C-alpha cells in the first residue's frame, strides 16, 4: 500500500518565491498549467511540482477541462499566516508610534 501524500504546511508552501508568484497569478483568475508555466524560466515539470506542493497545502486545486488542468486559488489557509502575523503587528505599530512622537517632538 502506498504511503499517504505529505500534507504541506502553509508556511512551507509559501516559503518559496515561485509558489508565492503562482498564488499571485491565481489570485487574479483561474489559469491552466500552460499559462502558469509561461511566467517562469523553468520546465513544466518543475512548475508541476510547485503546483503539487500548493495543492497539498490546500492553497490551490486543479480540475480537468479537456486535455488541460485548470488551477484556482483557495485563500482560506492563508488565514493561518494572517493570524500569525497579526501578533507581530503590535511591534510594528509600536515602532511607528515612537517615530511619530519623535517627529512631532522635533517640530
Quick overview of this protein structure:
The protein is an alpha+beta fold.
Feature tags:
WH_DNA-bd_sf; 5 helices; ArsR-like_HTH; alpha+beta; Arc Repressor Mutant, subunit A; 13% strand; 107 residues
Report on this structure.
This protein has 107 residues and is α+β, with helices and mostly antiparallel strands. It has a domain at 10-76: Winged helix-like DNA-binding domain superfamily/Winged helix DNA-binding domain (Arc Repressor Mutant, subunit A, Orthogonal Bundle), CATH 1.10.10.10. The chain is built from 5 helices and 3 strands. It has a 3-stranded antiparallel sheet with strand order 1-3-2. Strand 2 and strand 3 (68-73) form a beta hairpin.
SSE arrangement:
Blueprint: H1 10-14, H2 17-28, E1 31-32, H3 33-37, H4 44-56, E2 60-65, E3 68-73, H5 78-105
CATH superfamily of the domain at 10-76: Winged helix-like DNA-binding domain superfamily/Winged helix DNA-binding domain
CATH-defined architecture of the domain at 10-76: Orthogonal Bundle
Low-confidence stretches: none
* Count, helices: 5
Distance between the termini: 73 Å
Largest sheet: 3 strands, antiparallel
